[in-house]
């Protein structure tokens, strides 16, 4: 029998508890051993809830219990999650977490501690909720040199952009609806500014290359400036506006970014709408593979945590190797990053066409029926060259990169 | 160092050879050990080809070489692949294969032999080419009770149906084009009649429930009867015709089938076009997850084989457990299987409407502008009830199930 302690009985933690109880027999069969929740740590009380009999308010009950071999961390936040996880790993316990902030900030250190103790530090649920991506990236795609990863990594923003497109509504009103439906948090900053997606693409990129990406170095742009006009233009161009986290191998360096992009139907991410997430991985041998599913949600995310618990359980005493060292992965500076740009400028075509051509060279004009502005798509150029050209033509209303 | 023998230097076998050489350094790093091809068995000679130095015409060279720990079987066909694989496993060697016929026919027996020798029998490449599906189904989704699997499992037929829709062309002419492009074989029977997809859904279903599905028991219908009119009707209904392999849990039994179906845009398989494959899995906790990629192709398929080789290599002496026993999985008989049906009958609406309503009850008529026939969609009914109703109304031109 494997004994589990759960840190935090919130949405995901209670989901883990429910799955370990609800699919108990099936899990025991497949894991080859019974998996039992011995302690759940939470500061709150849950009178009448089945968790009551195993509830504790004291972390020491889990840390010092030699019978607890696996600890699930679903508290969220950096502190005290970091201290608790580190303490458990140092006791030789394996830890499975859904906490992307913890993994993005302290991944290599915690992986190393686990390795030194022949324990596991696993975090399938930290990216893509229930979508299997961490383990496939580490095992199924291990023969491949990963050329590119791009993903719709945040369900809240994908939902907002999908609704804006389908209902012709503006950002603020869709955000309010999303908050009412529970798809967006009261403080939506981490989602709408791209911070959540940034940590996720940092984790995926670190795993793909085995070296550490500091997520602070990844250029991150949210969706708060996207308007209904941007979406109308994208529609006119046959595309959709999506916010993607992406990383791309460029020689020995990697170019990474989180930003709204216009994508076309030939990209499998094009049809990923609503709260769904998907991650597209391009390998030098396997070509494009995509993983799709619910990027959040209590039971979906908890299912990913439980799959880690089962994996850790099968590898008690040896640990599951994770290839992600503290060595720094070199990122391409933003100004060298290249793409095509969709650009909107105030003023008519006649007022702008000439100076745009002087600054950007040949561009494709896009007419979505707004006579008070001039919109166009550039050829491929670096961010630095784009900024320089913009200086020459004057302020733009908005720009969106093209995927 | 791990020594590998490859049985068969055809498309996939030479791809495995190329990847093990081309990504050699990266593979050694990730596998923690060098992986080297010691023998390649093929009856042909390859003068001037890099394989020449390790080529053998005699299976015994591999079977009796104690240094060969892993054998790759990429010969295809049942015999002598079965005898060779069995002999290698009995020697305690692990075997990785891309041969779906072998796996569908002899899976449980070969898995058991491997288990008895603490070796591995792995077959990621047998379904979905380079798409990671077998391992995610066995590990990432292991906390879940699998409720449903449905997949576009054959690239040739998906290409044909996509071209028929996009070009308004008929089956025969698209098949000829596909053959010219190398997307369809000279004898396309196994693809267009659904036999290939049938073996694949049998493998996935066996793995999902740990018991053996006899693929002969799965009702299988190909796409040879699909015409441009069927596709025009599907279009009119807002759907697409796809050939899907599917299985669904119904109490303690499973309902499985390979057949053309009409699917709508709310199904993630809807946007899987051309030669791409995708597998949608519904778990009781994780909800819908989908795996998408190239279902065939030399390097994509070979990449999946090499991922198995690396996995087998990490588990020398213990073997990778695969949950699929010889115990028979009970399938729901076809006549009890339920769906909605799209049905086309010769004759006008006036000639048919009354008798159709008498036989099928309320139906939705579909008008795609063909005045010489009457088409409609039934409510959900069993195959037996459908057959009975058809007896009452007379022969139909075609029917397609609705997903």
What can you tell me about this protein's structure?
2 copies of one chain form a homodimer. Chain A has 403 residues and is an alpha/beta fold. Chain A has 3 domains: 2-129 and 298-314, Rossmann fold, CATH 3.40.50.720; 135-294, 2-Layer Sandwich (Dihydrodipicolinate Reductase, domain 2); 336-402, 2-Layer Sandwich (Alpha-Beta Plaits), CATH 3.30.70. Helices cover 37% and strands 24% of the residues of chain A. In chain A, the strands form 2 sheets. In chain A, strands 7, 8, 9, 10, 11, 12, 13, 14, 15, 16 and 17 form an 11-stranded mixed sheet that branches. In chain A, strand 9 (240-250) and strand 10 form a beta hairpin. In chain A, helix 5 packs parallel to helix 10 and helix 13 crosses helix 14 (383-393). The longest helix of chain A has 17 residues, at 100-116. The first copy, chain A, is elongated. The interface between A and B is large, with 53 and 52 residues. Strand 12 of chain A pairs antiparallel with strand 12 (287-294) of chain B, so a sheet runs across the interface.
């Amino acid at each position: 029998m494997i004994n589990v302690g759960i840190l935090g009985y919130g949405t995901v933690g209670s989901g883990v508890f429910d799955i370990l109880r609800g699919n108990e027999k099936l899990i025991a069969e497949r894991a080859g051993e019974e998996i039992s929740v011995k302690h759940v740590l939470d500061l709150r009380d849950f009178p009448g809830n089945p968790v009551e009999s195993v509830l504790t308010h004291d972390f020491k009950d889990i840390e010092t219990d030699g019978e607890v071999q696996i600890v699930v961390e679903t508290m969220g936040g950096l502190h005290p999650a970091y201290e608790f996880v580190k303490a458990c790993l140092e006791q030789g316990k394996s830890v499975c977490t859904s906490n992307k902030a913890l993994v993005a900030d302290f991944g290599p250190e915690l992986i190393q501690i686990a390795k030194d103790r022949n324990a596991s530090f696993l975090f399938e649920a930290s990216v893509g909720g229930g979508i299997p991506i961490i383990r496939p990236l580490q095992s199924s795609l291990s023969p491949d040199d990963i050329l590119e990863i791009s993903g719709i990594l945040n369900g809240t923003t994908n939902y907002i952009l999908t609704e804006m497109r389908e209902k012709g509504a503006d950002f603020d009103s869709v955000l309010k609806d999303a908050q009412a439906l529970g798809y967006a948090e009261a403080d939506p900053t981490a989602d709408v500014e791209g911070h959540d997606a940034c940590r996720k693409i940092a984790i995926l990129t670190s795993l793909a290359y085995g070296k550490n990406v500091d997520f602070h170095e990844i250029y991150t742009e949210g969706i708060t400036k996207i308007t209904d006009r941007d979406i109308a233009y994208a529609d006119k161009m046959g595309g959709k506006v999506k916010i993607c986290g992406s990383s791309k191998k460029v020689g020995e360096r990697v170019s990474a970014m989180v930003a709204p992009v216009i994508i076309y139907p030939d990209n499998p991410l094009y049809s990923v709408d609503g709260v769904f997430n998907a991650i597209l991985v391009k390998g030098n041998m396997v070509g494009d593979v995509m993983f799709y599913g619910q990027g959040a949600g209590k039971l979906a995310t908890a299912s990913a945590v439980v799959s880690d618990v089962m994996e850790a359980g099968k590898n008690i005493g040896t640990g599951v190797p994770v290839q992600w060292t503290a060595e720094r992965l070199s990122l391409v500076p933003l100004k060298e990053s290249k793409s095509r740009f969709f650009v909107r400028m105030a003023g008519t075509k006649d007022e702008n066409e000439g100076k745009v051509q002087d600054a950007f060279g040949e561009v494709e004009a896009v007419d979505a029926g707004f006579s008070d502005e001039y919109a166009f798509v550039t050829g491929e150029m670096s961010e630095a060259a784009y900024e320089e050209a913009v200086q020459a033509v004057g302020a733009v209303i908005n720009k969106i990169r093209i995927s």
